[in-house]
UniProtKB/TrEMBL annotation:
Organism of provenance: Anoxybacillus suryakundensis
Listed Basic and acidic residues bias regions: 25-40
Cited PROSITE patterns: PROKAR_LIPOPROTEIN
Keyword Disulfide bond listed: no
Main location: membrane
Keywords, ordered alphabetically: Cell membrane, Lipoprotein, Membrane, Signal, Sugar transport, Transport
GO molecular function list: carbohydrate transmembrane transporter activity; maltose binding
Stretch forming the signal peptide: 1-19
Pfam families: SBP_bac_8
Ranges for region Disordered: 21-48
Protein name: Maltodextrin-binding protein
Gene3D superfamilies per UniProt: Periplasmic binding protein-like II (3.40.190.10)
Presence of keyword Transport: yes
GO cellular component labels: ATP-binding cassette (ABC) transporter complex, substrate-binding subunit-containing
């Protein structure tokens, strides 16, 4: 999910009321569906359906085809897929096709839509063995949770990383302190050592969280909308650090709505030695003739990693599927190590499968390896509807700080006050 906020984006992701009946009730398995008889196969699965239907993202079907073929051969169940734009159209179309009985068994969406899909009764909780979950990075599984329950399996991840021009910088620094010193020496005229869109909360979150701030407190997979850590001591320290870069080293042109294009232009013209950006930017940089190097973000002055926001694309079982157990079996199969590796080969989507991080296919791809490593430190963007109330107030606060028009503590206190008011107004407590 692209972000500038685009982005996996996005950046975010990321409003509804609980459906008390309808889709959720209709989706419950009916024990007397076959004239009062419940058939169970020897392995505990219900009878095999003739067909399962999957909605895949556009231009991604090529990676699904080999996995489908192998699944059909192993289980004798036909699988059909249709490419439907992932970011918004799958969700919108499921609202219509699901109740009409013409929808899919499996969909793929960005993880920040999960909360909304659950509250609308469009996807169902799934049950898988712990051994299945153990194949994925912990953060990617966490992204598939809502209110402490599992609603999908991860397909691919993306998160901001450190990108540098090899002509201007020999290697990626290990720490932000090293990067700061490099930038102090390199930055002059129209040349800059490092640039980041830290007036954009999607990117600024990495610094704020790394210093101890948080959006919503995570209580064993359930996000507490009433516990907001965006003006705690760590968040203030992180924002003070951001303000230092804007005051001393960043140009004013990368603040605000056009900041992203301004930063991209400086880097692609060879005027910036390094930037914080995501894998969606790699190709444009290469097309501009830049020999890029990619690495995880350097560690913060407190020794902690930059805890970037992570976007996770996942596979989910429709609440309207008549074959939820087999739909779950299908998403287990298409996300296994073999099929995840094949997907990367065909689409360059980075799988959050732990065993593949050091696989030569990914390890020898500098960009993919950096994203895979950084994703281990990353925090999934909150997937509850209340996240929609965070982006605007935090953008206002960060831009005031970046422009030296407000002190971090004052700006963050005002942002959190606004966020809480908007949550109570737009998302009344149940």
């Amino acid at each position: 999910m692209k972000k500038t906020v685009s982005i996996f984006s996005s950046l975010a992701l990321l409003a509804g009321v609980m459906a008390g009946c309808g889709p959720q009730d209709e989706a419950k398995p009916k024990e007397n569906e076959n004239e009062g008889k419940t058939e169970v196969s020897e392995d505990g699965m219900p009878p095999k359906p003739e067909k399962l239907v999957v909605w895949e993202d556009v231009k991604r079907g090529v990676a699904l085809e080999p996995a489908i073929k192998a699944f059909e051969e192993k289980y004798g169940i036909k699988v059909e897929y249709k490419e439907v734009e992932m970011a918004t159209k799958q969700r919108d179309q499921l609202r219509l096709d699901g109740p009409a009985g013409t929808g899919p068994d499996v969909i793929t969406v960005p993880h920040d839509q999960i909360g909304q899909l659950v509250t609308e009764g469009l996807i169902r909780e799934i049950q898988v063995d712990q051994s299945v979950l153990d194949t994925f990075t912990e953060s990617s599984v966490s992204a598939q949770m809502y209110d402490g329950k599992l609603y999908g399996l991860p397909k691919a991840v993306e998160t901001p990383v450190f990108i540098y021009n090899k002509k201007l910088m020999d290697k990626a620094p290990e720490t932000m302190d090293e990067l700061y010193q490099f930038s102090k020496e390199f930055t002059k005229g129209e040349q800059y050592g490092f640039l980041a869109l830290w007036d954009n909360f999607y990117f600024a979150h990495g610094v704020i969280a790394g210093m101890g701030g948080y959006v919503f407190k995570n209580n064993n997979g359930a996000l507490d909308r009433n516990d907001i850590g965006l003006n705690n001591e760590g968040a203030v320290k992180g924002t003070e650090y951001i303000q230092k870069w804007y005051k001393e080293l960043f140009p004013k042109g990368i603040i605000g709505e056009n900041g992203g294009s301004a930063m991209d232009g400086l880097f692609n013209e060879g005027k910036a030695a390094s930037v914080m950006n995501g894998p969606w930017a790699f190709q444009g940089m290469r097309d501009a003739g830049i020999d890029i190097g990619v690495a995880p973000m350097p560690k913060l002055p407190n020794g902690e990693p930059v805890k970037t926001f992570m976007g996770v694309k996942g596979w989910h079982v429709s609440a309207f599927s008549k074959h939820p157990e087999w739909a779950t079996k299908l998403i287990e199969f298409i996300t296994n190590e073999e099929n995840a590796k094949k997907r990367f080969e065909l689409t360059r989507e980075i799988p959050p499968v732990k065993s593949l991080i050091n696989d030569p296919l990914i390890a020898e791809d500098e960009g993919a390896k950096a994203v895979a490593i950084q994703s281990q430190y990353a925090i999934p963007m909150p997937n509850i509807p209340e996240m929609a109330e965070v982006w605007g107030p935090m953008a206002t606060a960060l831009q005031l700080v970046a422009n030296q028009k407000a002190e971090p503590k004052q700006a963050l206190d005002e942002a959190v006050k606004t966020i809480k008011t908007n949550i109570e107004t737009n998302h009344p407590s149940k």
